[in-house]
Amino acid sequence: xxxxxxxxxxxxxxxxxxxxxxxxxxxxxxxxxxxxxxxxxxxxxxxxxxxxxxxxxxxxxxxxxxxxxxxxxxxxxxxxxxxxxxxxxxxxxxxxxxxxxxxxxxxxxxxxxxxxxxxxxxxxxxxxxxxxxxxxxxxxxxxxxxxxxxxxxxxxxxxxxxxxxxxxxxxxxxxxxxxxxxxxxxxxxxxxxxxxxxxxxxxxxxxxxxxxxxxxxxxxxxxxxxxxxxxxxxxxxxxxxxxxxxxxxxxxxxxxxxxxxxxxxxxxxxxxxxxxxxxxxxxxxxxxxxxxxxxxxxxxxxxxxxxxxxxxxxxxxxxxxxxxxxxxxxxxxxxxxxxxxxxxxxxxxxxxxxxxxxxxxxxxxxxxxxxxxxxxxxxxxxxxxxxxxxxxxxxxxxxxxxxxxxx
Length: 407
Ligand code: GLV
Ligand code: MN
Ligand code: MN
Description:
four-stranded antiparallel β-sheet
């Protein structure tokens, strides 16, 4: 598993770092490598019309057409670590290989999914791959443009997908026994507990929004300070307030992770700033109130400074609870793997957020060193990965026993 994560780290669109965004050449390379491993493991591979890579291990006879889904995402943030997302896909593949070696006669198929997009880098909207699987990759989203001006639909088509056939990505909820997502997270908490694994209770919701500050560009040498409408100074003042909001309540986090200024030239007063805001909290009402408060401050600061400012768009995902039965079964599997079961919520977003809307979904966290993620120093211990695989193996075995006893 770890060697494969190392190998996938070589699939990048920027030399010297790991950056693998939606429908990029780097993603195509990653697909080629993962597909080869999947085929070597005897899985039947397909890339669905949205660009998700799926490898299937068939069920034993008389399976009733049910399937266990396991996976995570293959895309990354910019200058990422090698495990966020990828580790979950490689654990799914390893589970299929274990099942083959043990000649497991599970009464369900196993689909190992490498989601094409979870991070929201290219279109500022996260979970595009899992959105397609639950039928929520809408025409409105497909019309969104990346920073190069291409629409999502164009990008999907150029990658070999088909935005007109997205309905084929959807699984029938009757067919899906469970979705389980192994993922690194919560390093500091699990380190404090001395545990390699955590069982996830729920995932914090998030609101992302795009804001524009529109001032007036002008000569940096000749425009007196009192006469300026500097959009970047307004945005900077607002960003300090975003941090203040984020600190004002336990469990709330608020981030401005990206700004673009125009014309972005050293001797011209910034005329326009576009910013991306990301607000998260487990409680939907608290998160919404924080977002509204932060947006109102942007408008007020713009008014004070005599410039225009507005929220252009928002994308929200409510908090989700993991499926109680699956999560209980996963906890038991963790116990059987010799690990004290420890339940905790997720602060990050995961494909499980979307999958939970349609399918019984659960998540297994694998401790990552110091909790570092979205950074090249992401790290995970081999023994912890082994414990995760052991627990997933037992989870699948428990599910097989449940299905058999039900029939
Ligand atoms: C994805 O990792 C996110 O939480 O934004
Ligand atoms: Mn991530
Ligand atoms: Mn992730």
